[in-house]
Amino acid sequence: MSCCATLSAGDATEVVWDVIVIGAGPAGAVAARELARRGATTLLVERQSFPRTKVCGGSLNGQALVSLPQLGLSHILPAAFAAPVSRFMVQANKRRVVLDLPAGVAIRRAEFDEQLVQSASDAGVAFLPETTAIVEPFSASDLTYRQVSLSHHGQQGLATKARIVIAADGLGHACLRHVQMFRSSTIRDARVGLGLVLHKQEAYEGGAIHMAIGRSGYVGLVRTADENLNVAAAVDPAALRATSMPGEFINRILRDAGLPLLSLDAASKWRGTLPLSRVTSRLAGGRTFLLGDAAGYVEPFTGEGMGWAIASAISVVPYVVRLLERWDDAGARQWETAQRRQMARNQITCRVLAKLLRQPAAVGLTLKALQAIPALARPIVRRIQSGPVHLQESLT
Question: Is 327 helix (H, G, I), strand (E, B) or coil?
């Protein structure tokens, strides 16, 4: 299956949309689908062609696995090569701890996103890939719509508008660079992401998230049902800049932790990200909402990122539906307040863990304690991996 455009860029400019969603990751695709199901004319714009790869560990936590059946989307898991994950294997300085996970699956991110977009299209969403969208400042003469400029295959000057815009285009939310109220700032010592999907890496067993922790970052590895290995890392940007070979840099972290090295060749193409940890000044206002990574981000560990993204999409839909009838800045602020509260609850554990992983001595003491008393990790694991325990029926 391939998600193709359902209309041309020219056709998109002929419509005054209820909602334009920018970014076709989990947050954008789910929000677009649910809004279309509620009768909103919805355009989903994506900068890249589909299917496309992302820097992602490719894990879904319990939160996501609860949400998908509620949305009627359980069927997409097998198509995304989902494989149950029941263990979290952490290693640093050749010291290893194995923790039980109550819920989780490994998926192929490209196929997962493709399935979500196809489900959105099936619900009536108009999909326009390979298109850059930029939200323009409000016109002083018209505050009832947001204008969005489109650039498609070299075509410039294409303009459309919507009553509400949802920015779900990831770190930095580039689509809002002309709208000053949505500034983002990077947290000090933020790491950058590296990602790769490798074939047939037999050294890493399935059913587990493997994590190697080193002085310059950490690497997560997990196998999908088609035996591919998702590799994702959060690393110190200065240390990464000091090497010309990302693969050697990642293998150094694996070697120092005591994990098997990756078998890489010239065709192995690493993808990178902007600095990961960042905060955004506003999440809603001016007929605009920010979802997923665009709303602010911390380093995730065992599949929280996509769970948070899907949850934010679900939460915004009733507000958007109500505000389509009559826009009210107070209503947008109400959602923003609730969303910031939820983000704080979701992200606090990951923030603490991210700080811990930057202190090698603390990592060593923590792993030593967990080797002696594994139960110490249970509250943390439950907090970031809450969800259903029995997953096999969802994958058949």
Answer: coil
